[in-house]
Amino acid sequence: MSVTASAPGKVILFGEHAVVYGEPAIAGAIDRRIYVSVERRSDGEVRISSSDEIEDGYPYVKRAAELTFDYLGERCGLDIKVESEFPPASGLGSSAAVSVSTVLAISTLLGREVERKDVARLGHMVEKKVQGAASITDSSVTTFGGVLFIKPKLEVVEAIDAGNIPLVVGYTGKTGSTKELVEGVRTLREADPEIVDSIIHSIGRIAVRAKGVLERGGDIGGLMNINHGLLESLGVGTEELSRYVYAARKAGASGAKITGAGGGGCMVAYAPENQRAVAKAIEDEGGLPFIVSIEKEGARIETG
Amino acid sequence: MSVTASAPGKVILFGEHAVVYGEPAIAGAIDRRIYVSVERRSDGEVRISSSDEIEDGYPYVKRAAELTFDYLGERCGLDIKVESEFPPASGLGSSAAVSVSTVLAISTLLGREVERKDVARLGHMVEKKVQGAASITDSSVTTFGGVLFIKPKLEVVEAIDAGNIPLVVGYTGKTGSTKELVEGVRTLREADPEIVDSIIHSIGRIAVRAKGVLERGGDIGGLMNINHGLLESLGVGTEELSRYVYAARKAGASGAKITGAGGGGCMVAYAPENQRAVAKAIEDEGGLPFIVSIEKEGARIETG
Q1: Chain A: residue nearest B205 by CA?
Q2: Which of A185, A274, B154, B295 pairs with A126 at a CA distance of 20 to 30 A?
């Protein structure tokens, strides 16, 4: 018997980097998934394979299997297959999605039901083990789906009842090192604490404002633009991201910003009227565009 | 007899836009000047001519002549010739420089000595009359030269004893409407007062910090980069300015930012080690680069 679980990628709409300093953030699951299929092996070994180039994800899969076995007090040999609908190491949350999918797939294969909050918690633990540190953002979003308001100080997330959010993601094809970028902001803050703290706090205020705008189905473009400039001021922008952002706005997006850690990775545009034109503009600048919507459903077992 | 007066252009190093809301700013005179030559005409008329394409400056020259006549209680016919070492309407302070040069040239021709602070004040009045509104920044910098710390709330300027500041200005060839850009920030502020006020205040804090760095001959690049992001967040950036800024940094500038109102106009890079490489990088992006230094001398009478 084979079990397949999947979990969505994510975009951070507001608050990246500031969330590290306790400010709230908003992240949304996107309608691109990672699929993890598991099947018992009789020899007790755990083998991981993939049809995509997502070897980066293997340490997460391996660690997720170990933690799940520990959590359930039960283990077995496994063939694990991983497939992804979005590029790994692009800042779209592939690590959390693959971790959570693995937890869900293995526990289901073993006939055990694990509560959602525990799936998220295990996914978060996997990320922490592999990376050394991780926020609860990615594991929460990929587990629960939808749009979440993250309050890092309280380690809680709150679902935002947002309408459709038509987005275009633009991928640079490059991976920014989250660790180095977070370190860069920390160094900047140590040099100029008053100025940088004030910028970080402004980013938090934007997230709070954006929550209200999303709840009434309003246009978050303007707030994204402000947030983008603040990310630039923290030094996590790149020339490419900036070009895609301007191209997206010119093509009619009402707002665009870096999403995730920056230094490469992705930008995201809010394009209620012309996702295709915005995607084309990003492509013309050399980026890889994804037209995405918010995915309401989080981690799930695939049937059939 | 002919009298020639000149006055330097300027770059705003820190604080543009925020200065409108009472935050301090730092501006420096640059080693590019506008020259105004005056000669009596017997027919009582005032005629303005120029070898450059700076007709934009004529209303300033005309108004400056009128205000100077009023101030001195004396008038005469004049041939006024204007020449410029930098492009007009580029955000480099041509309006103030031409106004102040005209005041100084005419008063000198009439054998009257006008105190520096009154030259600056008359220059400021000219700008206000022609534009409807103006800050004291440009008229002060072009009159006094050097680097000035502007405290708009008190309407005072303070000279900063800075060492050499090796700059590269990149001109887009386009003119942003200062009025519209200031209006844009006002609209943004009305929509999100808490967020935008906090950004404006951060810009002011950067100017205060930068004053200290300049006084000890330090590197202002990092603070310029932060200020640039904050200007982006206020919506006054353009795709071109952003490209030049990134190109300048890549070519070795330790910092780069929009200078002036944005929406076109100029950016400025701080390049202590490689002004030429930075200028070339800006040129490669389609910009018109000027390697400039801070000009210690303000408005003056040219002799010989």
Answers
A1: A195
A2: A185
Q: How large is the average pLDDT for residues A74-78? A: 96
Q: Per the structure block, which two tokens stand in for A151?
A: 């309050």
Counting every residue, how long is chain B?
304
Alpha carbon distance B197, A59 (integer Å): 45
- Cα separation, B216 vs B220, in Å, equals 11
Any idea which residues of B carry the catalytic annotation?
138
The ranges assigned to domains in chain B are: 2-163, 167-292
Q: Is the pLDDT of residue A241 over 80?
A: yes
CB pair distance less than 8 Å for A243 and B247: no
Residues B247 and B267: their CA atoms lie apart, in Å, by 11
- Please state which of the four CATH numbers 3.60.140.10, 3.40.50.300, 3.30.365.10, 3.30.70.890 is assigned to the domain occupying B167-292: 3.30.70.890
Q: Which two tokens stand for residue A259?
A: 């999403």
Who contacts B147 (Cβ-Cβ below 8 Å, separation ≥6)?
A: B13, B26, B27, B28, B29, B159, B160, B162, B165, B214, B294
Nearest to A232 among B222, B228, B250 (CB): B228
ipTM metric: 0.92
CATH class (in words) of the domain with range A2-163: alpha beta
Residues from chain B that touch A225, judged by Cβ atoms under 8 A, are: 233, 235
β-partners of residue B25 are: B150
Write out the two tokens for A196.
Answer: 């940088």
Residue pair A72/A102 in contact by the 8 Å Cβ criterion? no
User: What is the model's pTM?
Assistant: 0.93
The sign of the dihedral angle between the CA atoms of B134, B135, B139, B142 is negative
Residues 6+ positions from B218 with CB-CB distance below 8 Å = none
Q: Is the pLDDT of residue B76 over 90?
A: yes
Q: Does residue A231 belong to the interface with chain B, where contact is any CB pair within 8 Å?
A: yes
